[in-house]
Amino acid sequence: MKNKQFILSARPIGEPKETDWQLKESDMAELANNQVLVQVEYLSLDPAMRGWMNEGKSYIEPVKLGEVMRAGGVGKVIESNSSDFSPGDYVHGMLGVQQYAVIAANGLHKVDPALAPLPRYLGVLGMPGMTAYFGLLNTGLPKSGETVVVSAAAGAVGTVVGQIAKIKGCRVVGIAGGQEKCDYLINELGFDGAIDYKNSDVMTGLKQHCPQGVDVFFDNVGGDILDAVLTRINLHARIVICGAISQYNNTTAVKGPANYLSLLVNRARMEGIVVFDNAKHYGDAAREMAGWIAQGKLKAKEHVVEGLDNFPQTLMMLFKGENFGKLVLKV
Amino acid sequence: MKNKQFILSARPIGEPKETDWQLKESDMAELANNQVLVQVEYLSLDPAMRGWMNEGKSYIEPVKLGEVMRAGGVGKVIESNSSDFSPGDYVHGMLGVQQYAVIAANGLHKVDPALAPLPRYLGVLGMPGMTAYFGLLNTGLPKSGETVVVSAAAGAVGTVVGQIAKIKGCRVVGIAGGQEKCDYLINELGFDGAIDYKNSDVMTGLKQHCPQGVDVFFDNVGGDILDAVLTRINLHARIVICGAISQYNNTTAVKGPANYLSLLVNRARMEGIVVFDNAKHYGDAAREMAGWIAQGKLKAKEHVVEGLDNFPQTLMMLFKGENFGKLVLKV
Questions:
Q1: pLDDT tops 80 at residue B57
Q2: Which of A270, A273, A276 is the mutation pick for testing B, counting most B CBs within 10 A?
Q3: CA B316 to CA B318: how far, in whole Å?
Q4: Residue A115's domain spans which residues?
Q5: Are residues A83 and A151 in the same domain?
Q6: Do A133 and A98 share a domain, yes or no?
Q7: Is residue A12 predicted with pLDDT exceeding 80?
């Protein structure tokens, strides 16, 4: 039995390109004790993957050159040397960009394809959903009546942040690229305002849609958008730093927020989050979010692209803002 | 009776220059009800004064063109239309850069020249001391055994931050300009390490003096020093944004912290403070700090320059790092 794998073969400078990986056909490894063989069905494509390709310490180890590219995914158990999993089980874990994963059982957990379509376990019921839930509620600390702004608002995390903020009684304004996404935020997800950063001025949009200023900013993009929002924050505002996709492919230094002294003027806070810190509480969050989904208060949107071979180009959609909802690769 | 006053006559671009003020001799205003006439004895010169000279909203109103330059000070009551103050009382308040202040009684509070020399009420027992106390304890949240780094460490705020951190059982490292200041921090104030940013590499110094990383950074300077410290912070570090003196005279945009994504990697926080928010608790803080002074745990250093006429050049010492301790102008 053969396996197709994307192996990291070079550390990108700036934008990743196809040649940074090598598509390799290899023999399947033997299953060791407590290992499981999983047929990968869907892979999660996330901005964080760009950071994993860099050398140097971050919140998790970088992918080593010559290793399978790291990615979360869901798939079906084919063979198991663990008493916790049986062939036919569906599982979620860091399966990697490949057709089959031989993986330690303790890195997997079961998902139920009868409760939700599989790609949803990579989106609202997966890491992006958890990131939104814990980042907004524990670090953003939104209070009813406050104004919450979220960037990359039509993405996997942003859509969930905005909808949870609405559930909590906030005025919610999203920043997204293109009229279609902005219409979706307002008409489908119930956002109070949307700013199209590709076709309009963000500062003007913030003034228009946030007449009472900004109390919580959940930032996925960094760069000029972070600087624009910093000029509109209220006293004691909370800025959640979830990501900075506008800066990940920089070949020069990251653009730091020139307006950060607004934190001083407004006694405001900027705080970074990493979803893994909340692992103990994922279950509680998933139950609460499943309830919201059942009540129609939390809608999910996945953007599924087919074909393992299309991995490099599909990942690049994230950096061009071309995905609409959670980006998933069907293997 | 005549009064000499420094009137703000231009809004500086970049470094303030003498011609941004006009030294004017004017007649004394009549005392209205609840007003007090104070002979100004010492003026506090602070980095924040640069910000007050700019147009536009900040945490307090800017000084208007044609108004007396704002400054905190201590002085002696000469005449009083308030039942709260009598001639001969010593008071602290926003007296302004002038020989005599006609000022509302509710903007003044008494100080006791028998308990401490008057300049001390502008330093450790005044706003800089309060800034250090509340900023470090309420926002920096230092725990015994943690590493605390402070920039502008030999300044009015920095000296107090470092000493309180030592009292709380922390390892304390100061960043200051010049060997003399660094020696003072270590030999007189008991800092564990000092980094001379004018004559050595800050990154190297941080590696050397903070082998366990940085848990709390109390920042008064911004710019490259903030960026350097961001590369050395620990998980859940707290960065207190008190000021950014390196950026106040910029004619181009403020240099934002390019390494701010270290907040994400380390789930760390950057938060701004303004001392006035703690006004209700100044009394408690002053009592605790007076106790530390009495026990020899908290030392004060003032840098007194004489002569009201020298105000412009003396203020500029702050931006050149030429003051050593709390900068005070003797009128």
A1: no
A2: A270
A3: 5
A4: 2-123+300-330
A5: no
A6: no
A7: yes
